[in-house]
């Protein structure tokens, strides 16, 4: 699970979902606030409209009908009263004059009578109106679920006879009703659709990137990878196109160098053969033997060069092997000339014949200079480790890297029997590095030398057709 959240796809999905959730939360908060404002404004305007109509009716009807008009206008939430003094003792309006404008508009545009409005919030826990019956108040509280956010409005309208029509009303913002079943089903459905859409879109981005990553890893191991398809967004297609060009250039460069080396070694065989024939015609035995020895040495160097070139240009397919069984088979093929220590089970992909040749060179070199050879294997992090140890004299620290150079020999006599051609370690390192690994040499504290071979385990290579060099 953590690996998913650590991936580009997982992080982008989480980012989009978090951004959407934050946007929905802000939208919901704004909706609730705007809803409350709209409800309060509607109720306030309704009470203001009733007050304007009552004021006009009182002024136009006979005075004897005034009590009847007030009784008919009264309701549990709105109270009308005619008095000599206004209940609102100030002329400023907390609602920016919206209620006054509503009343004045209903009374007539030319009406300039004084209208006073007071709007304020009421604390929780009190009855909706002071004159409301307790039974009705309890019923009202039950209907509102006890979640009252009351607004009280006092309105005083000057009448033509010098009196004031005082209006008192209180209205509540209805509690927000949460249809939990609909809300949950909507959230789950939206999340599924969103994740599916994001997954599809991000696959177009991360899929080609993973393909490039696997192809680069395979190329580093020496595998031949077909050109990748140009899919995905423009930037990813540009990256894929650049990788294909890089792979083509590297492949052509390596192939040209390998062909040059192989051609050089091959062309040297003909003059060496001619020299060998002519050397046999020399009468003086000592000179003839010296020439023959030199020519044979040159011939072996040419053969090693060709072998070196074939190691670079190997077209062998990769296969998955178990390291213990692989080394056990190598030990049997080499007539048990080294001891093998059992290690943990390690599977990895390699060109078995090429790696077998590299290990054979290391083991033969260790046996030649160190006598007893001990081979062990295991796993460290994401690499397979093979150690070839001997009991020989070791190598001076300053020459631990130099011995991997082609034709370099620690034994200065130039004898093929004691020093070889100087290409064994070079071939071994070339093969191992072609697999994305490396070979290092260290001197043992108790004496002898240890050659450590590291081979990357890595991801599975892409399943596609392989090309040969």
Tell me about this structure.
The protein is built from twelve helices and eleven strands. 21% of the residues are buried. The two termini are 41 Å apart. The protein is rod-shaped and about 160 Å long. Helix content is 52%, strand content 15%. The strands form three sheets. A five-stranded mixed β-sheet has the order 6-8-9-11-10, covered by helices on one side. Strands 1-4-3-2 form a four-stranded antiparallel β-sheet. The longest helix is centred in the N-terminal third of the chain and has 53 residues, at 8-60. With 469 residues, it is an alpha+beta fold.
Question: Could you provide a short overview of the structure?
Answer:
This protein has 469 residues and is of the alpha+beta class. It has twelve helices and eleven strands.
- Major β-sheet strand ordering: 6-8-9-11-10
The chain-level structural class is: alpha+beta
- Topology, number of strands: 11
Tell me roughly what share of residues is in helical segments.
40-55%
- Major beta sheet, specifics? 5 strands, mixed
Mean pLDDT metric: 76
Question: What is the element string, with H for helices and E for strands?
Answer: HHHEHEHEEHHHEHEEHEEHHEE
The portion of residues forming beta strands comes to 15-25%
Global morphology: rod-shaped
Low-pLDDT ranges = 413-418, 460-469
Radius of gyration: 48 Å
What is the straight-line distance between the termini?
A: 41 Å
Determine the number of helices (DSSP H or I, runs of at least 4 residues). Answer: 12
């Amino acid at each position: 699970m953590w690996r998913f959240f650590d991936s580009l796809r997982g992080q982008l999905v989480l980012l989009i979902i978090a951004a959407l959730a934050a946007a929905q939360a802000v939208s919901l908060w704004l909706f609730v606030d705007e809803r409350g404002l709209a409800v309060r404004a509607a109720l306030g305007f309704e009470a203001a409209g009733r007050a304007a109509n009552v004021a006009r009716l009182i002024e136009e009807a006979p005075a004897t009908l005034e009590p009847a008009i007030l009784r008919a206008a009264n309701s549990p939430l709105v109270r009308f009263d005619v008095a000599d003094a206004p209940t609102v003792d100030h002329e400023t309006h907390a609602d920016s004059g919206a209620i006054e404008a509503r009343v004045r508009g209903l009374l007539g545009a030319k009406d300039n009578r004084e209208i006073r409005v007071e709007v304020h919030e009421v604390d929780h826990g009190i009855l909706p109106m002071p004159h409301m019956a307790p039974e009705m108040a309890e019923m009202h509280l039950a209907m509102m679920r006890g979640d009252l956010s009351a607004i009280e409005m006092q309105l005083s309208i000057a009448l033509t006879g010098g009196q004031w029509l005082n209006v008192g009303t209180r209205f509540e913002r209805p509690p927000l009703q949460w249809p939990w079943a609909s809300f949950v089903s909507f959230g789950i459905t939206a999340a599924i659709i969103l994740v599916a859409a994001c997954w599809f879109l991000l696959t177009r981005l991360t899929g080609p990137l993973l393909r490039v990553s696997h192809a680069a890893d395979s190329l580093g191991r020496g595998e031949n990878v077909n050109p990748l398809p140009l899919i995905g967004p423009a930037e990813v297609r540009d990256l894929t196109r650049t990788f294909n060009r890089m792979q083509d250039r590297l492949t052509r460069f390596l192939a040209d160098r390998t062909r040059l080396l192989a051609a050089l070694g091959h062309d040297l065989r003909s003059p060496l053969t001619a020299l060998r024939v002519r050397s046999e015609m020399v009468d003086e035995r000592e000179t003839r033997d010296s020439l023959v020895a030199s020519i044979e040495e040159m011939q072996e160097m040419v053969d090693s060069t060709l072998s070196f070139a074939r190691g670079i240009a190997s077209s062998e397919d990769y296969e998955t092997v178990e390291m213990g069984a692989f080394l056990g088979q190598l030990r049997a093929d080499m007539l048990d000339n080294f001891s093998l220590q059992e290690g943990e089970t390690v599977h990895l992909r390699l060109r078995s014949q090429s790696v077998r040749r590299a290990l054979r060179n290391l083991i033969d070199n260790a046996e030649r200079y160190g006598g007893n050879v001990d081979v062990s294997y295991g796993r460290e992090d994401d690499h397979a480790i093979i150690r070839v140890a001997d009991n020989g004299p070791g190598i001076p620290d300053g020459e631990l890297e130099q011995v991997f150079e082609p034709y370099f020999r620690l034994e200065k006599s130039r004898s093929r029997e004691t020093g070889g051609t100087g290409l064994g370690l070079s071939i071994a390192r070339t093969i191992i590095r072609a697999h994305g690994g490396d070979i290092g040499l260290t001197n043992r504290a108790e004496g002898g030398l240890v050659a450590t071979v590291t081979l990357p385990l890595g991801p599975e290579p892409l399943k596609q057709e392989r090309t040969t060099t």
